[in-house]
Amino acid sequence: MENILELNQVSKEYNDFSLKEVSFSLKRGYIMGFIGPNGSGKSTTIRCIMDLAHIDAGEVKLFGTTYRENMKNLKKRIGFVYDTDVFFEDLSAEKNKKIISSFYDSWDDESFYRYAKDFQVPLDKPIKALSKGTKMKFSLAVALSHQAELIILDEPTSGLDPVFRKELLDILLDVIQDESKAIFFSTHITTDLEQVADYITFILDGKIIASEETETLLENYVLVKGPKSLIGSIKDLQPIMVKESPLGFEAFLKSDSLNELELDFDWKVEQPSLEELMYYLVKSSR
Ligand SMILES: Nc1ncnc2c1ncn2[C@@H]1O[C@H](COP(=O)(O)OP(=O)(O)OP(=O)(O)O)[C@@H](O)[C@H]1O
């Protein structure tokens, strides 16, 4: 199936930071989570995808084409949901909808009212009176009502309570059911991604260090916990990182460093969570 989003060797230089030959791709019908520590380049990458930041080298392809070839049309096919307030705060959600809808030929009022109802967005209230979570839902209702095929969200779940977060994640899962759309979203909440992301792209200091299926990514690594007496044996396997405590150790290593014999040792081998994987990969790089 065609890539709906494709970045090829995208580079962007700021004074103190650069995106370094960022490449990854996403197909229709899937959700990709975009993770990385603070300041690693997530928002910058998203701004490059949205053509809000000029790229110095490389190429961003959307729906198989580039902004250079097709600027006006491309933007309309993307639903961009982000944290900063982009609406007319003093106007009601209904009036905001009226203004925004006039920009889109493909606007579908019926969908909008259905989503607003499903998401319980009060349309008569001014935007400034809505909670953060409700604003996010309004934003998503807008994105879905102009028939966006690619939904890009920059930290949509940050600051939302667990109930709102779960609702939002269910909505995202629902959106990709017909397999014609794709979702790309950045977040620090890795447990959200374990629930919904088919793929994970991991950025660190402006460089992509992994972009693959969530399951495969997690299966690539193991956490081994064992007593002090086995510390020499674990170190022989050249782990990525070992944390020692008075009682024993916790080691993070590539799964293929363990062979069958070593599985028989008196230590516990676990698959790391996404949060543990992120912690160890970030720590070991510093
Ligand atoms: N317009 C700009 N001019 C100069 N530097 C910038 C600009 N925009 C971002 N940066 C720098 O780029 C780096 C990456 O920032 P970015 O916002 O992309 O990170 P992030 O991964 O989204 O971080 P966070 O998780 O904290 O939101 C930061 O050091 C930031 O200061």
TrEMBL record:
Gene Ontology molecular functions: ATP binding; ATP hydrolysis activity
Annotated ABC transporter domain residues: 2-230
Database matches in Pfam families: ABC_tran (PF00005)
Record's keyword terms, sorted: ATP-binding, Nucleotide-binding, Transport
SUPFAM superfamilies attached to this UniProt entry: P-loop containing nucleoside triphosphate hydrolases (SSF52540)
SMART domains: AAA
PANTHER family, alphabetized: ABC TRANSPORTER ATP-BINDING COMPONENT, ABC TRANSPORTER ATP-BINDING PROTEIN ALBC-RELATED
The protein, known as: ABC transporter ATP-binding protein
Protein source organism: Neobacillus piezotolerans
